[in-house]
C-alpha cells in the first residue's frame, strides 16, 4: 500500500528531515488550509506590533512565500536574472538573521512585454522529508536534495506534459499559453507529487516523487489549468485531487487520475482563477475576484455516484488572490465586493463585512485569531468571531520593497512558524516574534 501523509500533522515522521508541528512546509501551511497549529502566541499585540527579530533583503523579486521546516528556510526568487531556489539555515535562537546555505537555479524568469507586476516565482516550495519541490513560472518543476541543494530531477510541465495555463486577463499567450505563469503549489501525496500542468494531455498529473516519472495524467479532463493549487480530499474512503479551473471544479482519483466528478458553472469564470478552494469534508467553496463571484458545492457521497449538488453560485464574495480561511462554521477573508468579511460557510450568509478597514489583503488563522496583511503592508490581528471585526493589534512593515513594480503589492501570504510571523515583500523578508519572549 502506498504511504500517504497529505500533510496531516500526525503523519510527518519522515526521518532526519522531519516536518514538525511548528513548521510551515508548503503553501498555506501544513494542511494547505491557511491554519497554523501553534498555540500560546500573543493574544494582543503591543502598540508598535510584535517585535521585529530580523530581516533579509536578498530574496530577489517574486511573490512566493517562505517554507520553513526545522532549522531551514526555503524561498524562491529572481536573483541575478534567474529564478533561484534559496535555502537558509536559521539560527539556534531564531533571533538573528539566517545564513545562506545553498542556491539552485530553477530557470528563466517568467516575463513578458508590458508586465508591471514583477517577474519571479509566485508559489512557495514544498518540503517533504529530505526533498524540496519547487515550481517556476515557465513550469520548470524541480526536486532537490534538502541538505545540499543537489538537483534530483527536473520536469517541464509545458514541454514534457503538454501543459497550458489559461491566459485570460493578459500575460503570455504565444507560443504556448502560459498566462501569468504557473502558480499552483506542488502537492506531495505519499510517494507521488501532484501538479496541475493543464492542457490537452490532462489537467492534473502525478509524478513519482523519487524519479519525476509520470505515474498518471488525467486525460479525461483536457482543460487549461488555473493559478489555484490542487488539494487532497479524502471523502468516505476515496482520496481525491480537487482543482478549481475557469469552468468550475474538478476531482480525480488520487491513485489513478480517473475523473470522479465535475462541477460545471452555468457561466464560467472569465478572469484569473487564483484562490485555492476551502474544503470541509464533502463541502467545497471556491471564489474568484474581478467581479466573478463564488460557489459552494457538496460532492457525491460515493465516487462515480452522480454530480455535485450546488448549494449556491453567486456574484457575492469575490476573493482575488489573498485566500480565505474557515474557522468553525464561518469563512473569513477579503472580498472585492464586501471588504473584510465573515460569512456562514454552509449557507453563504454574510454575518459582517467592512470595506473601510485595512484594504485588500491575505489571511492566516492561528489559535482563534486571524492575521490579516494588506497589500499596502499593514498587518492586523483580529479575533476569529462572527461578532465583528475585533482588532487586537496593528503595525506596518518598516520599509517598502525597492524592486516592487507600480502595479504590484504585498501579495505574499503571511506565514506562521516556530512562534514567528514571516512576511515577504519582494526582496525583503521580515521575521516577527509572536510569543512575546
Automatic annotation (TrEMBL):
Question: Which SUPFAM superfamilies does the record associate with it?
Answer: Quinoprotein alcohol dehydrogenase-like
Name the UniProt key words of this record, in alphabetical order.
Signal
Name the source's superkingdom. Bacteria
Give the signal peptide range: 1-21
What Gene3D superfamilies does this protein's entry cite?
A: YVTN repeat-like/Quinoprotein amine dehydrogenase
Keyword match Membrane: no
Q: Does the keyword Signal apply?
A: yes
Where does the record place the Pyrrolo-quinoline quinone repeat domain? 112-353
What PANTHER family has UniProt attached to this entry? CELL SURFACE PROTEIN (PTHR34512), OUTER MEMBRANE PROTEIN ASSEMBLY FACTOR BAMB (PTHR34512:SF30)
Q: What name appears for this protein in its UniProt entry?
A: Pyrrolo-quinoline quinone repeat domain-containing protein
- Species per Swiss-Prot/TrEMBL record: Tuwongella immobilis
